[in-house]
Write a structure and sequence with these properties.
The complex is a heterodimer of chains A (94) and B (504).
Chain A (H helix, E strand, L loop, with lengths): L4 H10 L6 H18 L34 H5 L17
Chain B lengths: L13 H9 L5 H19 L2 E4 L18 E5 L26 H8 L3 E6 L33 H8 L5 E6 L5 H7 L2 E4 L19 E6 L2 H11 L29 E5 L9 H16 L3 E5 L7 H16 L17 H12 L2 H14 L4 H22 L5 E5 L15 H5 L6 H6 L3 E11 L3 H5 L3 H7 L2 E11 L4 H14 L12
Parallel strand pairs in B: 2-3, 2-4, 7-8, 7-9
Antiparallel strand pairs in B: 1-3, 4-6, 5-6, 5-10, 9-11, 10-11
Helix pairs in contact in B: 4-5, 6-16, 8-10, 8-11
């Protein structure tokens, strides 16, 4: 599968990742090579094979619905790039 | 090369340090100072640490069994409430987590003294530690070579005896491959054995925390502390945790060791194969039965991995948005800020994998790539389950080559990915596996030497001894089985006790 320059830009947009123009051609070439390599799996007959998303059996777990303390607000906001003492502050949405 | 243990002021195995502390032969302060001095002396050159902790050894950890204040260092993707956690990424530079990972908490409660946070490939994506955003880490056996990755700092620090043991994480070989390159013991437990709570996620269905140690008995000692169900990780298994250390009796008579022929084929360097075959003969001489087995879907493991792991990573790394922690590039709008923050904060390999994963999951490609990969993952898992009907453990080389030179594979992502060709299928199947040192091979010191006419001869003369790793793969939740064989091998060999000359 050849990943075109415009395809790289489209995927980068979906991933919310700024990719500089000079990175686009390198990424297009590298992604094409890696996908071509990955495509060897398509030579197998996988008809009727169940996909494995997780290797261990997971069962639902129940617990009492009791209130618990979360992290201290001040401790959490210590890492915030921008806050007002109570909330995270971000640029405007849009 | 061999170490003169009589001249050492302190024991170097973790359990012996813990027992020395318990008996009061030396204090936590003395042992911490000893390792701190080694870090100060050697790490400027090696680059194992991203953060060295300010520890006095005065804390009351000495009261806490079973570690009694013994020093340990952590790969920098385990969150720690008292040290920064960066994942070797600019996007988390300076991040101080408000809590401890469960594995960290358990070690703390067991009396560990943390010496610091160890270097790695950014977000655990890489096989050479060259993707660290801060500085590379070198291989103590030959500083022109990589320590492997992604837990490169964790392996190199133990190899150079800057710490007696460390924790790493393994998504496709990230504990075992660097353990092999650095000549230390590296254990990846069964998926679900150790809680992943507080392990910064790369690929959630593959990631597992494990110890890097000098020997298998120390790995067993640490696994007893780390293992067990954790209500904070829904994928941590509710299965009993055996006393791993008590199963190590050196006895392997009658153990059936499977040799998968697909792992001894092209790409495996000849002298690496010889070292591994010597190890297998030693096991056979001690009464183990060598049985040929087949894992027919082996060649599809790396392709499957490079669809599944990036797909999971692209989803996991969506949380780095510059809102709540980490780097933020201020822009007019939130959306612009996401693009700028992530564009500036992630390195090239991380970007490549986020894009690959986004592509594999995107509309129109999901069935062809992601879903097909998950089906092939089933076939790979079935191969192992089938093989384990007739054997107790499976033995393979850990990596097809010894440590490669820094820079050698940077321009070729597929070549880099293939250094994990023997480790990746184990993660896809969720099995436990350990890499142990099984000998040395010689390689040339500098690139120029190999370009010359008499390359081989010159390479041998000026060459470095590089460690080779033997990988033992076990049945699900049978860490005891592989630790037992590893320990039995180490009772009869001393490769794991050798220290690179410059650090002995």
């Amino acid at each position: 599968m050849k990943v075109s320059h415009s395809e790289v830009r489209r995927i980068a947009n979906l991933a919310r990742l700024r990719v500089e123009e000079d990175e686009v051609s390198r990424l297009s070439e590298e992604m094409s090579r890696i996908l071509e390599f990955a495509e060897t799996i398509r030579e197998l007959d996988t008809e009727g094979i169940e996909p494995t998303t997780h290797v261990i059996e997971l069962t639902d777990v129940w617990r009492e619905d009791e209130p618990r303390r979360g992290l201290e607000r001040a401790r959490v906001l210590e890492n915030a790039p921008h806050d007002d003492g109570a909330c995270f502050v971000t640029p405007r949405i849009g | 090369m061999a170490r003169d243990t009589a001249a050492e002021p302190f024991p170097f195995l973790l359990r012996e340090i813990a027992s020395g502390l318990a008996q009061g032969l030396f204090s936590p302060k003395e042992i911490t100072a000893h390792y701190r001095e080694r870090i100060d002396r050697y790490d400027g050159d090696l680059g194992c640490f991203l953060h060295v902790a300010e520890v006095s050894g005065d804390t009351d950890t000495s009261e806490c069994a079973p570690l009694h204040g013994a020093p340990i260092a952590l790969k920098d993707l385990l969150v720690t409430s008292d040290m920064p956690t960066t994942c070797a990424s600019r996007i988390l530079e300076g991040y101080r987590p408000p809590y401890d990972a469960t594995a960290v908490k358990r070690l703390r409660e067991a009396g560990a003294c943390f010496l610091g946070k160890l270097n790695m490939d950014e977000f655990a994506m890489g096989s050479s530690n060259e993707n660290s955003a801060f500085h590379p880490c070198r291989n103590p056996w030959d500083r022109d070579r990589v320590p492997g990755g992604s837990s490169g700092g964790s392996a190199a620090a133990v190899a150079a005896r800057l710490v007696p043991a460390s924790l790493g994480s393994d998504t496709g070989g990230s504990i075992r491959q660097p353990a092999s390159f650095c000549g230390v013991t590296g254990l990846k437990p069964t998926y679900g054995r150790v809680s992943r709570y507080g392990l910064v996620a790369f690929a959630s269905s593959l990631d597992q925390i494990g110890p890097l140690t000098i020997d298998a008995a120390d790995a067993a000692f640490l696994l007893e502390i780390l293992a067990g169900h954790d209500p904070l990780d829904s994928t941590s298994a509710s299965v009993p945790v055996p006393r791993f250390t008590e199963t190590l009796d050196g006895e392997i008579n009658g153990t059936r060791v499977g040799i998968p022929k697909e792992y001894f084929s092209e790409g495996l360097e000849e002298d690496v194969r010889e070292r591994v075959e010597e190890a297998l003969r030693l096991l056979e001489g001690e009464g183990a039965d060598l049985v040929e087995v087949s894992l027919p879907h082996t060649r599809y493991a790396v392709p499957v991995y490079y669809i599944v792991a990036p797909a999971e990573a692209s989803s996991n790394l969506a949380r780095f948005d510059g809102v709540r922690y980490g780097l933020r590039k201020e822009e007019e709008t939130m959306m612009e800020s996401f693009f700028s923050t992530r564009g500036a904060g992630f390195g090239p390999e991380v970007k490549r994998r986020i894009l690959l994963g986004t592509y594999a999951l995107s509309s129109g490609y999901y069935d062809a790539y992601y879903k097909t990969a998950l089906k092939v993952r089933t076939l790979i898992q079935r191969d192992f389950l089938e093989a384990f009907r007739s054997v107790d453990v499976i033995a393979t080389p850990t990596s097809p080559t010894p440590a490669f030179r820094a820079g050698e594979r940077l321009d070729d992502p597929i070549k880099m990915y293939l250094s994990d060709v023997f480790t990746i299928s184990v993660n896809l199947a969720g099995l436990p596996a350990i890499s142990i040192p099984c000998g040395f091979v010689k390689r040339g010191k500098a690139l120029e030497e190999r370009k010359n006419g008499d390359a081989e001869e010159e390479a041998m003369q000026g060459g470095a001894d590089l460690p080779v790793g033997l990988q033992l793969i076990g049945k699900p939740f049978d860490e005891a089985g592989i630790l037992r064989v590893a320990d039995a091998y180490q009772r009869r060999t001393d490769y794991h006790l050798r220290v690179p000359e410059a650090f002995s």
